[in-house]
């Protein structure tokens, strides 16, 4: 194996590990939500707030890390973000109240956004266009596998140890990633190509999105759509574990069915979008999601652990058919989603 191949493998491995941190920090602790609610003596909605604030922090982070990486360079931003991620995970593990956990999860999400934003830019700096797609596919494969395995691992950690250790594991993974970034990743953005960071310019660029009603409608539609999925994620552990009496260590296996359905629908959508106009896919996805959401609500009283993920098949076509419309507005889409996740438990508590 050549030095170039060794270097490529190391870079992809490190970036794959970084890409795992975001889905792991969401899906790995899902089985613990009912335990967190019981341990702190708070309603389910308060435990679900730990997911909402994480998403809110992740959304706000996407507003700043891109311009920061263009100004300071890729390595300082991704290294700093990963170290803060580790520190926030430790703070979550040591939280003594639900309020502390909610606040620390905000900073956890804020730090997680650094890797999400910078990975793409860093790989574009390193690889030529034809090689970029191939290397990025490996990273995307990791981000698909991570949410599949994370709840299973989290469930067993919960049984053997406690929910605190889930965050200790995340902290250790982030520290290992930080060491590898420091030792093996070189700065890829030359000083002469860097752009000054002006917060007013950044805010102005994103504010311009709101002057385009069509773009705004896509962002809102996507935000509400993803809110449905994440509301299911935050409520799912309570439905499975408390209502259907699924053991925490088995929750991940049922949850994996949702990921499989999402993966299948992503593949189907990618095939259809080549033949069908993207706007038509957008409309079809919304209508399918609406119809299936009504069906899911109607069958809620008869749900079993198996029927729950089957009913969420809608989340595949509903969420993945129009993502290209909202790339520029991803942070605002996530903010809409976070607000919805906060409001739903308040309006419809367990």
TrEMBL record:
Name the keywords, alphabetized. Answer: Cell inner membrane, Cell membrane, Membrane, Transmembrane, Transmembrane helix, Transport
Q: Which SUPFAM superfamilies does the record associate with it?
A: MFS general substrate transporter (SSF103473)
* CDD domains reported for this sequence: MFS_MdfA_MDR_like
Gene Ontology cellular component list? plasma membrane
Location comes to:
Cell inner membrane
Family recorded in the similarity comment: Belongs to the major facilitator superfamily. Bcr/CmlA family.
What is this protein's record name?
A: Bcr/CflA family efflux transporter
